[in-house]
């Protein structure tokens, strides 16, 4: 809006106080948004004795990696948590990309009996909170002997209809003539999928991959329920556990939290554009 | 039998040897393509939902010795532990109303303020707002817990600068729900900003030019052009935030692990305790379906509310 106000006032030599106000508000909002992130890393780098003094240091005057060293010796499972988080998020993401693109392609470009019913069924279950399913899933997991196993987190993670909608939405925009041309050239269905659909869907696949990965990297409730021994925890579950173990040793807790946050922050900085376009793509169906 | 039918009968075996084979040839790939996701959907969504519905009408330990008890679990959901679930619903509604209203207003305002700025400025602010959103809510809650710490916390330090006595943010029963709510409000609603910003950017500039020629100021433009034209996005964002707020859990679980009396009970902490600590599966399932019904009802109302307006 600021843009328009500037245009309006162009004739009478602008007193740009609205613009200045806008900048002040934006900067305050940015500080509020980033403050917890800043505080996270500052506290992680400050030995606990300094972290709890008043007044607190607003910049790291006593920075050291002491907390991280103590974390990795005292919370010896930390690397396992990181490894588990990567395995879980990566496996789920890879399967989601294939499953959702396959299904999205069929829903977008093919006609088969029962298609409308299946699609209606997917839509109908969208609003059901996942908490509804957790007790039966827990019993299923227990019966399969998968409690305290990474598969207990991975398998239910493979379900999820959002990606199917996203891929269907995107593949609908691809020209059907292209598929027909490929078939004329003698491509079988699998080759059409692999050599035409998948490469052309790259933007949507990228957005989907990021969203699925972030969602499962940060997932908390279900891993908390089914992963029981410390060496099988994911990072969020492990970090939550640090609080119980080290109660007021904020240095160690924050070192654990900061280290857990770092990969996603770097990931975001590299793929920032894809993150944001993914958010917009997801909303198109709304 | 007419000649045509005779001819058809004769040629049928030759032209379509087997209807099943033909069907498979025609549709087999389609079903093969939807099979993996439909299988996962059936196993991990559809089947558990159906089973949970059954459990919510039963009493027992699921594995054996289950009795049908009708709607008893739905009644007991509200009466067990001297009716703490009612309090949990009240707390959840309080949290949801405050955070959704605040989130929407803040997102609208900030999206408008970054609209039309230089590309790099826009990217910087969108990234700054979005960074906490990619961070696990567990980690964000860990930080807030320290900020709220009554002895060493940053917030009480800020208060001490203006000579206000330290507050017990997370242990005062009258304050703690507000502290939890405040921490959500102060987490800039990044998704909303990104979506509103995209919606505002797609409004044709001619609309504003025309309005300006008619003498409309920025606020008039905002009220009569921007707001009506981003209505469907607003609906989407409102629904998104409402559903998320109704399911608040991580934040409460981390900030006040053992709760502060009943003042920090929300719907999902109740479900969690009944299901995985008290092992009252029937009641927990009933509560989960009550949560679902509340979300569904509120979403329907929101759709009605936004649709009742004049479409532009």
TrEMBL record, chain A:
GO cellular component terms, A-Z: plasma membrane
Biological processes, Gene Ontology terms: transmembrane transport
Membrane topology: Multi-pass membrane protein
Record flagged with keyword Hydrolase: no
Pfam families: BPD_transp_1 (PF00528)
Alphabetic keyword roster: Cell membrane, Membrane, Transmembrane, Transmembrane helix, Transport
Transmembrane segments: 20-41, 86-108, 117-138, 150-171, 192-214, 250-271
Keyword Chloroplast: no
Gene3D superfamilies according to UniProt: MetI-like
Primary localization class, coarse: membrane
Compartments, record wording: Cell membrane
ABC transmembrane type-1 domain mapped to chain residues: 82-271
Family indicated by similarity: Belongs to the binding-protein-dependent transport system permease family.
Protein name: Sugar ABC transporter permease
Organism the protein comes from: Dictyobacter vulcani
Native organism taxonomy: Bacteria, Bacillati, Chloroflexota, Ktedonobacteria, Ktedonobacterales
UniProtKB/TrEMBL annotation, chain B:
Transmembrane residue ranges: 31-54, 93-113, 125-148, 182-203, 223-243, 284-306
Classification via InterPro entries: ABC_transporter_permease, MetI-like, MetI-like_sf
Keyword terms, alphabetized: Cell membrane, Membrane, Transmembrane, Transmembrane helix, Transport
Pfam family, one: BPD_transp_1
Location within or outside the cell: Cell membrane
UniProt KW Transmembrane keyword: yes
Protease keyword on record: no
Gene3D superfamilies reported in the protein's UniProt record: MetI-like
Membrane topology category: Multi-pass membrane protein
Single GO BP term: transmembrane transport
GO cellular component, one term: plasma membrane
Highest taxon in the source lineage: Bacteria
Domain ABC transmembrane type-1: 89-302
Family: Belongs to the binding-protein-dependent transport system permease family.
PANTHER family: ABC TRANSPORTER PERMEASE PROTEIN, INNER MEMBRANE ABC TRANSPORTER PERMEASE PROTEIN YCJO
Protein's name according to its UniProt entry: Sugar ABC transporter permease
Organism: Dictyobacter vulcani
Lineage, highest ranks first: Bacteria, Bacillati, Chloroflexota, Ktedonobacteria, Ktedonobacterales
């Amino acid at each position: 809006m600021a843009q328009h106000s500037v245009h309006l006032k162009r004739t009478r030599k602008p007193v740009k106080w609205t613009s200045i106000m806008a900048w002040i508000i934006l900067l305050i909002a940015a500080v509020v948004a980033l403050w917890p992130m800043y505080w996270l890393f500052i506290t992680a780098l400050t030995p606990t004795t300094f972290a709890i003094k008043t007044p607190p240091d607003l910049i790291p005057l006593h920075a050291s990696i002491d907390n991280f060293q103590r974390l990795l010796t005292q919370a010896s499972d930390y690397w396992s948590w990181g490894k588990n988080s990567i395995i879980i998020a990566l496996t789920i993401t890879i399967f989601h990309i294939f499953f959702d693109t396959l299904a999205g392609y069929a829903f977008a470009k093919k006609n088969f009996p029962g298609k409308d019913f299946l699609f209606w069924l997917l839509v109908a279950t969208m609003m059901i909170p996942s908490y509804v399913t957790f007790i039966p899933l827990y019993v299923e997991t227990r019966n399969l002997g998968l409690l305290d196993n990474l598969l207990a987190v991975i398998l239910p993670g493979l379900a999820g209809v959002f990606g199917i909608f996203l891929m269907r939405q995107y593949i609908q925009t691809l020209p059907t003539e292209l598929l027909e041309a490929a078939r004329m050239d003698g491509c079988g269905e699998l080759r059409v999928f692999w050599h035409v659909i998948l490469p052309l869907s790259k933007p949507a696949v990228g957005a989907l991959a990021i969203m699925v990965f972030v969602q499962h990297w940060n997932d908390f409730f279900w891993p908390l329920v089914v992963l029981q021994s410390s060496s099988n925890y994911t990072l969020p579950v492990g970090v939550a556990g640090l609080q119980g173990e080290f109660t007021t040793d904020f240095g160690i807790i924050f070192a654990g939290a900061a280290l857990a946050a770092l990969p996603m922050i770097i990931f975001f900085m590299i793929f920032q554009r894809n993150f944001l376009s993914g958010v917009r793509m997801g909303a198109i169906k709304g | 039998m007419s000649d045509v039918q005779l001819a058809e009968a004769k040629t049928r075996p030759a032209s379509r040897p087997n209807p099943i084979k033909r069907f498979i040839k025609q549709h087999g790939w389609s079903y093969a393509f939807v099979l993996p996701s439909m299988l996962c959907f059936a196993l991990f969504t559809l089947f558990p939902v159906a089973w949970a519905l059954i459990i919510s009408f039963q009493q027992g330990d699921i594995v054996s010795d289950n009795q049908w008890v009708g709607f008893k679990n739905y009644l007991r959901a509200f009466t067990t532990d001297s009716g703490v679930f009612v309090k949990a619903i009240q707390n959840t509604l309080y949290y949801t109303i405050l955070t959704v209203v605040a989130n929407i207003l803040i997102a609208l305002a900030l999206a408008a303020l970054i609209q039309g700025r230089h590309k790099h400025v826009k990217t910087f602010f969108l990234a700054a707002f979005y960074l906490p959103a990619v961070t696990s809510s567990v980690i964000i809650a860990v930080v807030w817990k320290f900020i709220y710490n009554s002895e060493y916390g940053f917030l009480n330090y800020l208060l001490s600068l203006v000579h206000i006595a330290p507050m017990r943010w997370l242990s005062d029963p009258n304050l703690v729900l507000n502290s939890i709510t405040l921490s959500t409000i102060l987490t800039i609603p990044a998704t909303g900003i990104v979506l509103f910003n995209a919606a505002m950017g797609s409004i044709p500039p001619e609309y504003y030019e025309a309005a300006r020629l008619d003498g409309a100021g920025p606020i008039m433009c905002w009220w009569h052009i921007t707001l009506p034209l981003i209505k469907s996005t607003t609906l989407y964002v409102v629904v998104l935030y409402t559903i998320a707020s109704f399911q608040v859990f991580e934040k409460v679980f981390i900030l006040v692990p053992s709760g502060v009396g009943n003042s920090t009970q929300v719907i999902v902490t109740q479900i969690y305790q009944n299901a995985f600590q008290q092992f009252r599966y029937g009641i927990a399932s009933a509560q989960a379906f009550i949560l679902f019904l509340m979300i569904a009802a509120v979403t329907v109302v929101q759709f009605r509310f936004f649709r009742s307006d004049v479409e532009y």
